[in-house]
């Protein structure tokens, strides 16, 4: 779940729904790729002020529910997520690069939408879970509430 981020001069709760399709809409998200994608995203969260609230894959595209701070624009968030995950997946799972003919991992475009903190966060998470083909969408990561 999202939480208020307290900085020195502001408090924010900025949530984004980011959808990234694989290049050529190829079916590349296997159990192995999903596991590496989750690990890479959690590593991104350690280095950048981007928290992954939920990550879900639907065979040929991935939904990210991310929280960030006002200093990162939505474009910067998408660029960070797409570039680092692509580079690392190609290194960790070389068979994916072969499947994509040695090209790029993500397609050029993406979809990004803002999500409200009160009331809309759960509805977007439900939408993400239910929008895909039945039994093909799987949650790769869901952040747990942390105790103090």
Commentary on this structure:
This protein has 148 residues and is α+β, with helices and mostly antiparallel strands. The chain has a single domain, classed as Alpha-Beta Plaits, CATH 3.30.70. The chain is 36% helix and 26% strand. It contains 4 helices and 7 strands. A 5-stranded antiparallel β-sheet has the order 6-3-5-4-7, with helices on both faces. Helix 1 packs across helix 2. The radius of gyration is 15 Å and the shape is globular. The two termini are 15 Å apart.
How would you characterize the largest beta sheet?
Answer: 5 strands, antiparallel
Order of strands in the sheet with most strands: 6-3-5-4-7
Residue share in helices?
Answer: 25-40%
Radius of gyration: 15 Å
What letter string, H or E per element, gives the SSE order? Answer: EEEHEEHHEHE
Look up the CATH topology: Alpha-Beta Plaits
The CATH class, by name, is Alpha Beta
The total of helices stands at: 4
Name of the CATH superfamily: Transposase IS200-like
Estimated structural class: alpha+beta
Provide the number of structural domains: 1
User: What is the level-2 CATH architecture name?
Assistant: 2-Layer Sandwich
Morphology call: globular
Low-pLDDT residue intervals, each spanning 5 or more residues? none
